[in-house]
């Protein structure tokens, strides 16, 4: 992409409505525009990051054996009357009447709808286990939408649902989700710590939230600092192996880590004092096992191998896809702007031409552009007739992890400059070498 042909409405001033850094940078970098409280348009740059995050979520769900589908945003109220949640959900639910007077709602989540699909099509234990998921817009009429996309009213979420014959099988599904989430967040350059949490209106006993530590987080958390040394890394895992998934769960949840809802001072006191931490965190996902709550109330049953009709054991598992855009910025920025992790960056590499219109510099930039593209990379070329300072400021704000700077002086010596956004370090090298270096970084992701 060439900047002169792109739509990147960068703001010079700090928007007054933004109180946290991710919201401020998302507005300033032209990623989003608010349309009403807690509802945003995703402008091209923001949309790219959102899609990159969504793709990682899809890849990791599919790797874990979960099956993608898509349910509608608008749901009939009757389904929610069956589960009893139509009344329970309260003011957060956006209720709508259609022209025939039918009660509808904009879905805040999909337990009821997926259970309805399941009961219509599945009747035998032979069809289990089954985990279906979708990534779809949700609406919750939050009392205080704030912090930009972090607590929106309309937001994008992955929600997955497992159906199993027994509690034991459903707990394996729970563990499998935990493992796949660890991988998912790490690929986005995040450390998200699973913490024991409270199940709230979904019901059930087993639940973990995944929290990214950040001062601006809305949750108060308490943990054993040893947990931050854990890394999932690139280990191979067989998602069908009960034992392997269980082992990972134990490794990542045996240390004390809880949100304020389940915090227990007495248990926390057992953590060595120098490792006790209290901090704030951003909830980027949550997994639940809730047993037969929905299957019993809605009649989602299967025939088991003894010809008995039994309700299935279920869980639901969410990832806050749109919130993650903000959470990643909270975790990765400096005072000049965003610093995208390579896994989610909207463009792989920026190209800055220090002297637009100079025949040699222009040609060198074009050559770099095609060379990066031929490696399957997407460059963003700042080809505006602007001063170097302005170009650098834009690149720093939008946070591409790598930048190649091209100027007539360097070209005389056969070099361009490759700069890391994270460290600020620059290295002069031949254009080919710079391209090879950038290609290698992304190939190793
Ligand atoms: N209002 C919101 N705006 C953006 N993301 C949200 C919002 N509410 C929930 N999410 C994201 O969706 C994920 C799953 O939602 P869920 O656990 O059902 O929500 P909650 O914890 O608010 O009850 C959360 O972990 C969070 O990342
Ligand atoms: Mg939650």
Automatic annotation (TrEMBL):
UniProt signal peptide: none
UniProt-listed PROSITE patterns: AA_TRNA_LIGASE_II (PS50862)
Domain Aminoacyl-transfer RNA synthetases class-II family profile: 38-341
Catalytic reactions on record: tRNA(Pro) + L-proline + ATP = L-prolyl-tRNA(Pro) + AMP + diphosphate
EC number: 6.1.1.15
GO terms for MF: proline-tRNA ligase activity
Location of the protein in the cell: Cytoplasm
Keyword Kinase: no
Principal place of residence: cytoplasm
Annotated keywords: Aminoacyl-tRNA synthetase, ATP-binding, Cytoplasm, Ligase, Nucleotide-binding, Protein biosynthesis
Superkingdom field: Bacteria
Pfam family, one: HGTP_anticodon
InterPro entries in alphabetical order: aa-tRNA-synt_IIb (IPR002314), aa-tRNA-synth_II (IPR006195), aa-tRNA-synth_II/BPL/LPL (IPR045864), Anticodon-bd (IPR004154), Anticodon-bd_dom_sf (IPR036621), Pro-tRNA-ligase_IIa (IPR002316), Pro-tRNA_synthetase (IPR050062), Prolyl-tRNA_ligase_IIa_type2 (IPR023716)
Keyword set includes Ion transport: no
Assembly with partners or alone: Homodimer.
HAMAP family linked to this entry: Pro_tRNA_synth_type2
General function of this protein: Catalyzes the attachment of proline to tRNA(Pro) in a two-step reaction: proline is first activated by ATP to form Pro-AMP and then transferred to the acceptor end of tRNA(Pro).
Family: Belongs to the class-II aminoacyl-tRNA synthetase family. ProS type 2 subfamily.
NCBIfam families from the UniProt entry: PRK12325.1
Official protein name in the record: Proline--tRNA ligase
Gene that this polypeptide is encoded by: proS
């Amino acid at each position: 992409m060439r900047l002169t042909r792109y739509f990147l409405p960068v703001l010079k001033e700090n928007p007054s409505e933004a109180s946290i850094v991710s919201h401020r940078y998302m507005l300033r970098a032209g990623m989003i525009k608010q349309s009403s409280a807690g509802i945003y348009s995703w402008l091209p740059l923001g949309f790219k990051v959102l899609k990159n995050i969504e793709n990682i979520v899809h890849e990791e769900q599919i790797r874990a054996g979960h099956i993608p589908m898509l349910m509608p945003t608008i749901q009939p109220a009757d389904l929610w009357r069956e589960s009893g949640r139509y009344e329970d959900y309260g003011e957060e639910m956006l209720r709508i009447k259609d022209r025939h007077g039918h009660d509808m709602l904009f879905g805040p989540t999909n337990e009821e709808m997926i259970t309805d699909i399941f009961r219509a099509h599945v009747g035998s234990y032979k069809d289990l286990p089954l985990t279906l998921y979708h990534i779809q817009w949700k609406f919750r009429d939050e009392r205080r939408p704030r912090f930009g996309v972090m607590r929106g009213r309309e937001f994008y979420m992955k929600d997955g649902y497992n159906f199993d014959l027994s509690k034991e099988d459903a707990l394996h599904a729970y563990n499998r989700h935990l493992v796949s989430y660890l991988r998912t967040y790490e690929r986005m350059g995040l450390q998200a710590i699973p913490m024991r949490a409270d199940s709230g209106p979904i019901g059930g006993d087993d639940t973990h939230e995944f929290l990214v530590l950040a001062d601006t987080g809305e949750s108060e958390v308490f943990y054993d600092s040893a947990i931050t040394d854990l890394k999932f890394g690139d280990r191979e895992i067989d998602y069908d192996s009960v034992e392997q998934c269980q082992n990972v769960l134990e490794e990542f949840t045996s240390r004390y880590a809880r949100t304020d809802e389940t915090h227990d001072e007495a248990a926390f006191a057992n953590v060595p004092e120098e490792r006790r931490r209290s901090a704030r965190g951003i909830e980027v996902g949550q997994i639940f096992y809730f047993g037969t709550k929905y299957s019993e109330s809605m009649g989602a049953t299967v025939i088991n191998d003894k010809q008995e009709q039994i309700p299935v054991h279920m869980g639901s598992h969410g990832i806050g896809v749109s919130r993650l855009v903000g959470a990643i910025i909270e975790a990765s920025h400096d005072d000049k702007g965003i610093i995208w992790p390579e896994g989610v960056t909207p463009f792989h590499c920026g190209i800055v031409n220090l002297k637009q219109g100079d025949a040699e510099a222009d040609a060198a930039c074009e050559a770099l552009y095609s060379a990066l593209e031929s490696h399957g990379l997407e460059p963003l070329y700042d080809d505006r007739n602007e001063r170097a300072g302005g170009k650098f400021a834009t690149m720093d704000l939008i946070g591409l992890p790598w930048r190649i700077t091209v100027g007539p002086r360097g070209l005389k010596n056969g070099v361009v400059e490759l700069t890391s956004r994270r460290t600020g370090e620059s290295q002069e090298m031949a254009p080919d070498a710079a391209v090879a270096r950038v290609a290698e970084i992304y190939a190793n992701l």
